[in-house]
Automatic annotation (TrEMBL):
Residues annotated to bind DNA: 29-84
A Gene Ontology BP annotation from the UniProt entry: cell differentiation
Organism, as annotated: Dillenia turbinata
Keyword Cell wall biogenesis/degradation: no
Subcellular location: Nucleus
Designated name of the protein: Homeobox domain
Alphabetized UniProt keyword annotations: Coiled coil, Differentiation, DNA-binding, Homeobox, Nucleus, Transcription, Transcription regulation
Length: 839
């Protein structure tokens, strides 16, 4: 017995020593480390077979056991992970340090502003107590523009004096209290925000300010921002007429700029300004600008009636370098857009600081941040396109659309005679170069020219972001495939006889292929494929698909003052980097009175059930909605460009006029459908927000789930609106579809709409089979009989698809019959997708 115990102890100690030997530290030679690093670069996590192969192929590793090789790779991966995490934390720490410094400066500025207001308040009290008959205007904090009558703007000394004064006024706005800045509604600063944004509360003109941190050097940032047409989409041109050095090492430039009109109802703007670039004593780089008195440079004689001279009050960029790299930017835009020159209904657009903030100030900071991320390699785009190329595509689409809306005479545009109604404007450009690219080989030789049909209309109580999303996702509701095919054929033929066109039928299906997006997804660039089939047997196997290059922006409903756009142009399937573009599209601009600039808007709502989720009776909700949240107006501008032959100009003009009117009619129908106060005759019966039908369906869904599965769908089953609230906010996607031969969805909670990437107004256009792939449809057909027989079925984990073509995975799905109140009638089928996420 003692011998057995001794043998057991010896064997145990032997096995322990072997384990210790196997796990002991091994000191590798430089050659061995080099060999392992080469393998690690190819495969950071090699398999057991690969490690054994490595030992056989590398004699210098023959004395090392496979387990030791495994441990080396584990340690190497751990070191790599720690290195990346350390680098990330250092970057975050630098950003937080700079942002903290920025916030401290902002706090100091606000404290100075409070002190100034306290002094002014005390002064006003003294005036009131003295019962002064006149009001002393010196207490106002309104920024005024000094007159330059005492200075000569025609010689360098006078210009330098103006430049120094511009610098002082700009700095007082950027970091001082010259303007009463208030936080931009809906743009709260935070760790994930682009920057800190503010608009003017009370000053002449409209003004906006932005502060942010960018990982670029000051000189690079100044170079980007001075190239205004590259980031300001409404800037038609910017020309430097004169540039000379200032005595302090800076430069003074005389600049002439033209700004597009955003709609057909207003003239464009131009500016004659002095731009001063200099470096401060603390190392900060400043680019400031202001308008000069006098006519200065101007548009060509042909286009002069299409412009109104605007005024730029002291504005610019303050760029301060940060310790450890990067820069802090202060941007100020202060303009007087001469609102008197536009129709009264459009004046809020020219009197809104929020619009200036979105179009210029915020856009500038976002663009610089975008360039910084692309430079660092953080942005990866699809289809092998370089970021600069995709940016150029977006700029060309936007510029071409603006050219079509404005129709400047010096570009060759002229108006055709209207038919009396004048609801649609027809412009013709016989000299227009469709290609408009640097490579003339890829430009199209026009035998006739380009015709543009455009119109503007007012919309009441229609959220622009919701309307643009609908137009993007449901093109078949408003577009004519034959018109798209007509435009697309111009890219494949040198003339517009289009001998290659054949009778084609549009299937109604569109595939959206993303190309890229900006850092906050405020603009999307994508390729749209419209699926078409030939109607003739001999061409049945020839593709009739039409491809469009498209940008979509302004889809965020919480972006106050943002413009929503959908601009597209036909392209060839294998479009080159300088492919010719002929843009058309929609632009929706919210109109808001200047008095509302300093008030935070009521919470924006889409066409969903959220309006039922507020405390209070449903009738009160609808009354409040009509007077607050949805009592807003916007202006919609539509412009479509079509090529034509000289002998077909009148025919194409008639077709274009009819097509625009058809599109307007479709958009009006859609606008009525998505308007919270409207009823859609085309959409059929649907669950309107706050309706009794929505509350009833929510009750039936929960009751039927409990009846069939013996468990509660919601944690706290309560009646009335509380039940609807819980169902709407449920973390899992819950959807209901009709019991038709082709089932379509009739209800979805918020998670369901997010999963399908759609809205309630578009929900009924989605059929059940479209969200599943082939295997999913087979599994659904297999379990459908079980659902109808026993009332429910558990579906295994799988993959479904959103309306945007993105794949969605889910751990489990449950299907059950939704019974009406009598528990004998099946109202619809309900599905819940548990723990879903985008793949």
């Amino acid at each position: 017995m003692a011998m057995a115990v001794a043998q057991h102890r010896e064997s145990s100690s032997g096995s322990i020593s072997k384990l210790l030997d196997a796990g002991k530290y091994v000191r590798y030679t430089a050659e061995q480390v080099e060999a392992l690093e080469r393998v690690y670069a190819e495969c950071p996590k090699p398999s057991s077979l690969r490690r054994q192969q490595l030992i056989r192929e590398c004699p210098i590793l023959s004395n090392i056991e496979p387990k030791q090789i495994k441990v080396w790779f584990q340690n190497r991966r751990c070191r790599e992970k720690q290195r990346k995490e350390s680098s990330r934390l250092q970057t975050v720490n630098r950003k937080l340090t700079a942002m903290n410094k920025l916030l401290m400066e902002e706090n100091d500025r606000l404290q100075k502003q409070v002190s100034q207001l306290v002094c002014e308040n005390g002064y006003m009290r003294q005036q009131l107590q003295a019962a002064s008959a006149t009001t002393d205007g010196s207490c106002e904090s309104v920024v005024t523009t000094p007159q330059h009558s005492l200075r000569d703007a025609n010689n360098p000394a006078g210009l330098l004096s103006i430049a120094e004064e511009t610098l002082a006024e700009f700095l007082s706005k950027a970091t001082g209290t010259a303007v009463d800045w208030v936080q931009m509604p809906g743009m709260k600063p935070g760790p994930d925000s682009v920057g800190i944004f503010a608009i003017s509360q009370s000053c002449s003109g409209v003004a906006a300010r932005a502060c942010g941190l960018v990982s670029l050097e000051p000189t690079k940032i100044a170079e980007i921002l001075k190239d205004r047409p590259s980031w300001f989409r409404d800037c038609r041109s910017l020309e430097v007429f004169t540039m000379f050095p200032a005595g302090n090492g800076g430069t003074i430039e005389l600049v002439y700029a033209q700004i597009y009109a955003p709609t057909t109802l207003a003239p464009a703007r131009d500016f004659w300004t002095l731009r001063y670039t200099t470096t401060l004593d603390n190392g900060s780089l400043v680019v400031c600008e202001r308008s000069l008195s006098g006519s200065g440079a101007g548009p060509s004689a042909a286009a002069a009636p299409q412009f109104v001279r605007g005024e730029m009050l002291p504005s610019g960029y303050l760029i301060r370098p940060c310790d450890g790299g990067g820069s802090i930017i202060h941007i100020v835009d202060h303009l007087n857009l001469e609102a008197w020159s536009v129709p009264e209904v459009l004046r809020p657009l020219y009197e809104s600081s929020k619009v200036v903030a979105q179009k210029m100030t915020i856009a500038a900071l976002r663009y610089v941040r975008q360039i910084a991320q692309e430079t660092s390699g953080e942005v990866v785009y699809g289809l092998g396109r370089q970021p600069a190329v995709l940016r150029t595509f977006s700029q060309r689409l936007s510029r071409g659309f603006n050219d079509a809306i404005n129709g400047f005479n010096d570009d060759g545009w002229s108006l055709m005679n209207c038919d009396g109604a004048e609801d649609v404007i027809i412009s013709v450009n016989s000299s227009k170069n469709v290609g408009a690219t640097s490579n003339p080989v890829n430009s199209i030789s026009l035998l006739g020219g380009v015709l543009c049909a455009k119109a503007s209309m007012l919309l009441q109580n229609v959220p622009p972001a919701v309307l643009i999303r609908f137009l993007r996702e449901h093109r078949s509701e408003w577009a004519d495939f034959n018109v798209d095919a007509y435009s697309a054929a111009s890219l494949k033929a040198s003339s517009f006889a289009f001998p290659g066109m054949r009778p084609t039928r549009f299937t109604g299906s569109q595939i959206i292929m993303p190309l890229g997006h900006t850092i906050e997804h405020e603009e999307l660039l994508e390729v749209i494929r419209l699926e078409g089939h030939s109607l003739t047997q001999e061409d049945a196997f020839i593709s009739r698909d039409v491809h469009l290059l498209q940008i979509c922006s302004g889809v965020d409903e919480n972006a106050v003052g943002a413009c929503s756009e959908l601009v597209f142009a036909p392209i060839d399937e294998m479009f080159p980097d300088d492919a010719p573009l002929l843009p058309s599209g929609f632009r929706i601009i919210p109109l808001e009175s200047k008095t509302g600039d300093t008030q935070t808007l009521a919470t924006q709502r889409t066409l969903d059930l959220t309006s039922s989720l507020e405390v209070g009776p449903v009738t009160n909700n609808s009354t409040r909605d009509s007077s607050t949240s949805y009592n807003t107006r916007s202006v919609l501008t539509i412009a479509f460009q079509l090529p034509f032959e000289n002998n077909l100009q009148d025919n194409v003009a008639t077709m274009a006029r009819q097509y625009i009117r058809s599109v307007i009619s479709s958009v009006q129908r859609v606008a009525v459908a998505i308007s919270p106060s409207g009823v859609s005759p085309a959409a059929g019966p649907k669950l309107s927000p706050g309706s009794p039908e929505a509350l009833t369906l929510a009750h039936w869904i929960c009751q039927s789930y409990s009846y069939h599965l013996g468990a509660d769908l919601l944690s706290d089953s309560a009646g009335g609106e509380s039940l609807l609230k819980q169902l709407w906010r449920h973390q899992d996607a819950i959807l209901c579809c009709s019991l038709k031969s082709l089932p379509f969805f009739i209800f979805a909670n918020q998670a369901g709409l997010d999963m399908l990437e759609t809205t309630l107004v578009a929900l009924q256009d989605i059929t059940l089979d479209k969200i599943f792939d082939e295997s999913g449809r087979k599994a659904l057909c297999t379990d459908f009989a079980k659902v109808m027989q026993q009332g429910f079925a558990y579906l295994p984990s799988g993959i479904c698809q959103s309306t945007m073509g993105r794949h969605v995975s889910y751990e489990q799905a449950v299907a059950w019959k939704v019974l009406a109140a009598d528990e004998n009638t099946v109202h619809c089928l309900a599905f819940t997708f548990i723990n879903w996420s985008f793949v």
